[in-house]
């Protein structure tokens, strides 16, 4: 092994949108930085997720960086909701424009990061055995990057081609003339199933839990709307940042139960016609009151019945859980796809999955012969990527041990016992996946960069949360989540999709503006709640 000592001021793990901007900011402080990226290129989520139909569920004019006025003005999006290839081109453009690739080492997976208390520095080892040392480590590993491949009996026995939506072949896949099975009906399945159905001779969708999906009504971006937003881009983004999820849209102050049935239907119809995540802004209590949520559920289920011609299939596609408390999907023709003669829905609640066999997939009812099998089974969300790296802080304690009872952080940015280790939007204790990810990434990066700059100016060696501050923040995160319906729903927000994972509602649901003000207040008070130590 090569144990040659290389030293950097900071190591960043991941070259998605978080890692790219973190590198840019740290360079601006005059620091030496090395970024490690598992893939062969930049883009993170948008580098890996190339399945057919992959598309962002936040509108293009909002899902972009804000740190550069020139970048914001020069880049032109083509659609209301950008597709994966366009978003990846944007990430590559940013990397080229700001000359970021020279400090990124691609095709490199970080195996471990161990803190050395004597030197107050981190020792980072790659899977290839290379070692570097850094004062600071920033985990830009993403919320949805650790692939979940369920342990289905006989999984590796299948004789046909297998794919996971999050690790799609870069050259694409041609399903023409094939019998294809898709396991899963989450967001990636909702986006890919209509595309696969257009190619496959037969498509079998194996559904354990149906999902709610709202039409995207995607279309080419209106040039006049683009120019209107760009004319006051900073003002526009600042106004949107005052909304609970940092996503543009009208947020009602009315209760779903305080209006008449006719008015409620009119509002829901209006949101359905707009499409996208705006549906959740129809009434203020949709994620607070089970009865209010029930009205939103009923509306979507009625829409499904109106779209899907076979009543039995429509019923199987109709969810029963709280709407919006699992990830709300945005689709183009998802429910309509089940009207196609070559598409069949297999309800695994009625006929459970038995095992995968060389010829295909067997349920309790019968064997389905398949030529290709697609796992649309999602991720070990938020904490999964971190748990797959051997991270050890003070006294050799691992992050897995520290988070054995569920993740604990201060502001979702750092955790007790792991000095100078920062996390960008992994989820636990920050708005993260319940917000517009790119602005949330920028907010985290700016907080971390300012903190590192503050430490440098004052010759400080380490920073980490105090136990009291972390405990108080965890309590607050739980306190604001408890009155909502989110913790009461089995979702990847609580880790319910991963066997054995401690059930904890991970994101901060107190609102993006509240969170940002808390971070500003902490910084203004000399990083209140953090323990800072001088250099020896």
Structure, explained:
The protein is α/β, with parallel strands linked by helices. The protein contains 16 helices and 20 strands. The chain has helices at residues 17-28, 45-48, 69-74, 84-97, 187-199, 223-231, 233-240, 261-274, 290-307, 311-316, 334-337, 384-387, 399-402, 437-457, 467-481, 512-524, and strands spanning 6-13, 33-36, 104-105, 110-116, 121-126, 131-139, 161-164, 179-183, 202-207, 213-215, 329-331, 343-347, 353-357, 360-363, 367-369, 372-375, 390-392, 421-423, 460-465, 530-534. Strands 1, 2, 3, 4, 5, 6, 17 and 18 form an eight-stranded mixed sheet that branches. The two termini are 32 Å apart. The model has no long low-confidence stretch (mean pLDDT 96).
Secondary-structure map with pairings?
Elements: E1 6-13, H1 17-28, E2 33-36, H2 45-48, H3 69-74, H4 84-97, E3 104-105, E4 110-116, E5 121-126, E6 131-139, E7 161-164, E8 179-183, H5 187-199, E9 202-207, E10 213-215, H6 223-231, H7 233-240, H8 261-274, H9 290-307, H10 311-316, E11 329-331, H11 334-337, E12 343-347, E13 353-357, E14 360-363, E15 367-369, E16 372-375, H12 384-387, E17 390-392, H13 399-402, E18 421-423, H14 437-457, E19 460-465, H15 467-481, H16 512-524, E20 530-534
Parallel strand pairs: 1-2, 1-6, 2-3, 4-17, 6-18, 7-16, 8-9, 8-16, 9-12, 10-11
Antiparallel strand pairs: 4-5, 5-6, 13-14, 14-15, 19-20
Tell me the major beta sheet.
8 strands, mixed
Average predicted confidence as pLDDT: 96
**What is the overall number of helices?**
16
Indicate the proportion of strand residues: 15-25%
**Radius of gyration from CA coordinates:** 23 Å
Determine the fraction of residues in helical runs and give it as a percent range.
25-40%
Cα shape: globular
């Amino acid at each position: 092994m090569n144990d040659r000592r290389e030293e950097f001021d900071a190591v960043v793990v991941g070259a998605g949108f978080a890692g790219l901007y973190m590198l840019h900011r740290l360079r601006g402080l005059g620091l030496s930085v090395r970024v490690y990226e598992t893939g062969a290129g930049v883009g993170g989520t948008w580098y890996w997720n190339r399945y057919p139909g992959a598309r962002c569920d936040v509108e293009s004019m909002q899902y972009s960086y804000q740190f550069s006025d020139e970048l914001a003005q020069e880049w032109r999006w083509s659609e209301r909701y950008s597709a994966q290839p366009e978003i990846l081109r944007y990430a590559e453009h940013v990397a080229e424009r700001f000359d970021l690739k020279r400090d990124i080492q691609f095709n490199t997976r970080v195996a471990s990061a161990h803190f050395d208390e004597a030197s107050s520095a981190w020792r980072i080892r790659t899977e290839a055995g290379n070692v570097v040392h850094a004062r600071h480590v920033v985990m830009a590993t993403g919320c949805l990057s650790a692939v979940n491949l369920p342990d289905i009996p006989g999984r590796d026995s299948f004789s046909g081609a297998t794919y996971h939506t999050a690790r799609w072949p870069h050259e694409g896949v041609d399903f023409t003339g094939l019998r294809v099975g898709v396991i899963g009906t989450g967001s990636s399945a909702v986006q890919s199933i209509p595309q696969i159905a257009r190619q496959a001779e037969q498509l079998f969708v194996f559904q354990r839990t149906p999902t709610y999906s709202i039409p995207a009504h995607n279309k080419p971006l209106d040039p006049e709307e683009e120019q209107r937003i760009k004319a006051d881009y900073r003002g526009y983004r600042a106004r949107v940042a005052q909304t609970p999820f940092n996503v543009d849209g009208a947020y009602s102050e009315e209760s779903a139960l305080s209006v008449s049935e006719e008015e409620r239907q009119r509002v829901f119809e209006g949101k359905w016609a707009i499409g996208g995540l705006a549906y959740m802004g129809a009434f203020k209590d949709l994620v607070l009151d089970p009865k209010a949520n029930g009205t939103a559920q009923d509306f979507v289920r009625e829409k499904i019945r109106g779209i899907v011609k076979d009543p039995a299939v429509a019923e199987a596609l109709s969810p029963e859980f709280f709407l919006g408390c699992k990830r709300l999907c945005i689709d183009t023709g998802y429910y309509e796809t089940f009207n196609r003669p070559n598409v069949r829905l297999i309800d695994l609640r009625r006929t459970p999955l038995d095992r995968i066999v060389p010829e295909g997939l067997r349920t309790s009812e019968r064997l389905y012969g398949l030529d290709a099998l697609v796992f649309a089974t999602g991720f070990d969300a938020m904490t999964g990527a971190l748990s797959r790296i051997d991270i050890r802080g003070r006294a050799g304690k691992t992050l897995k041990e520290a988070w054995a009872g569920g993740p604990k952080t201060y502001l979702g940015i750092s955790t007790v016992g792991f000095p100078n280790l920062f996390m960008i939007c992994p989820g636990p204790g920050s708005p993260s996946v319940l917000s517009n990810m790119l602005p949330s990434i920028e907010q985290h990066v700016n907080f971390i960069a300012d903190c590192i700059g503050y430490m440098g100016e004052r010759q400080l060696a380490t920073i980490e949360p105090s136990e009291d501050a972390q405990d108080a923040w965890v309590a607050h995160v739980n306190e604001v989540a408890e009155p909502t319906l989110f913790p009461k729903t089995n979702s990847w927000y609580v880790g319910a999709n991963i066997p054995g994972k401690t059930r904890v509602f991970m994101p901060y649901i107190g609102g993006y503006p509240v969170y940002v003000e808390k971070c500003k207040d902490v910084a203004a008070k000399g990083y209140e709640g953090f323990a800072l130590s001088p250099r020896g």
